[in-house]
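agent: user wants the full assembly modeled, not chains individually. Plan: 1) parse entity lines 2) check alphabet per entity 3) run joint structure prediction 4) return tokens. Steps 1-2 passed, two entities, 452 residues total. Proceeding.
--- entities ---
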Amino acid sequence: MSDEARYLYCVVKKEEELLLGNIGIEESSVYIVHHKDIAAVIHSCKPVPYDTTDHAKAEGWVLEHSYVIDQVMKKFGTVLPFSFDVIVRGDDDTIRCWLDQNYDNFKEELDRFENKSEYSVQIFYDYDKYVSKALTSNKDLLSLKEKIDNQSKGKAYLLQRNLDLKLKDAVSADVRKQAEIFEKEIISIANEVKADERPLFKPDNKYKDKNLMASFSCLVHIDKVELLGTVLEKINNLDGLAVRFTGPWAPFSFVDLEGAKT
Amino acid sequence: LKPEGESCLVEVLDRLLNKGAVLNADLIISVAGIPMIGINLKAALASMETMLDYGLMEAWDRDTREWYARQKTNTPLEPGENALFKTFGYLWQSNGISGSWVPGIWYITDKRLILWRRSPGEKIFEIDLQRIDAIETREEIALSINRVELELRYNDNNTARIYISEPDNFIRSLEEVCKIPAKIEIPSKV
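--- prediction returned ---
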């Protein structure tokens, strides 16, 4: 077994070999090796994974990986991005051989992403506004709320809890329904849409008081980005809603090399 | 709306660790998620609760982690069994003159009705669908609020008391899979 290894950043359409400079993880020298018209962006490393228990260090590595992909995307267009810490045992010839074996597969994926990028869409809603909406549109809830005012403290407390739960259910039903409508609109514009199952965070202060209604990763053709922006603007202008729209990113959520051989 | 070119750190980490192409083959030495780094960084992305779990995990050995991974995905389902409906709810467990409501997740599968406690995984109640005779609603008073409870009849003469906050879909699903006659009148709400 070879004692050499190559760290993979991405695969790109390129017909020449190039040095990209020391822009990689821990200032590794990143370069391109090609086979026919496709190429891998790599750096040479030891055959051991990047591993640490130091958070800051690990974050640094991931950001460096991300930086390389961003730069390659800017320079050469469409990329097939690899996840962090994918390392192949072997040398440059191993990589060329690997590109050769998977040529059709990689070419097909690159063509699929031609002139398209990934965009991220998050829709946030104002919980309090949705509660008022539920109260005005649902007579049962409203009468329950009115009933609470005439009760003794103890009973009022229990009824209030009951009402809060019902309101929560009503709001979440409403939110789900709306999210489905928005999703349909987005699907009609994007080439592919994936709903993010596990939304992670509130990005910044702007959305601090709001809850997440839905989060989508969208693969969008360059000609359709403006149209998507218009639709999102419309949603953003609705009362109690705010949209966060970011991109373009490499197609991380859509790339699929499951069938690749090594 | 114009797309912003900025993403926050959490998003970048999520993209690079949870997404992107991964290869599974002999030549591959590592992919994020196997070594420690994957676990550590993914912890930063996870909710508070999961983060605590991960925090504890650091000290654990490999076996413990594997056990944990199994627990994360644990369900009461047997191979080939499909869950048709799932909801949080309670079962009344009587203990002579006293008793208590035991919480868990009610599963209606294509074979059984199960009340499942996730941690530690345990089936609190299970019954084959063929053995279910009927499900009925009853209005009970709990904490001075009227609420709807369910009474499950099974194995000829047995009954079980069930509480689920929104029982309608549960009842409908159960009736559908068991083909038991509907006897449902949801009493007027509070």
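agent: reporting back. Strands of chain A lie at 5-13, 18-21, 30-35, 38-45, 79-81, 87-89, 116-125, 192-195, 211-221, 241-249. Residues 153-187 of chain A form the longest helix (35 residues).
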